[in-house]
Specification:
Structural class: mainly alpha
Largest sheet: none
Shape: elongated
Strand content: under 5%
Radius of gyration: 28 Å
Low-confidence stretches: none
Mean pLDDT: 80
Length: 64
């Protein structure tokens, strides 16, 4: 009797977790559908170029 009850509880918990996962996936898909679609290339092109770091001659090590 105890084994049957434990198995039923396990199955109920598994079904509940599957339902929660499905709800989370549907909510995620709904959020993704609401966002404006951007291509990955345009997202890369719009990022500002990072400035190049240069050291003044007085700080740079002398070679030779």
């Amino acid at each position: 009797m105890q084994l049957l009850h434990s198995q039923q509880q396990w199955e109920l918990m598994r079904d509940h977790q599957a339902d929660m996962l499905k709800q989370a996936q549907m909510a995620h898909l709904a959020r993704m559908a609401e966002k404006p679609q951007k291509s990955w290339w345009s997202a890369l092109r719009r990022q500002p170029q990072s400035p190049t770091l240069t050291l003044p001659a007085s700080v740079a090590p002398k070679l030779g």
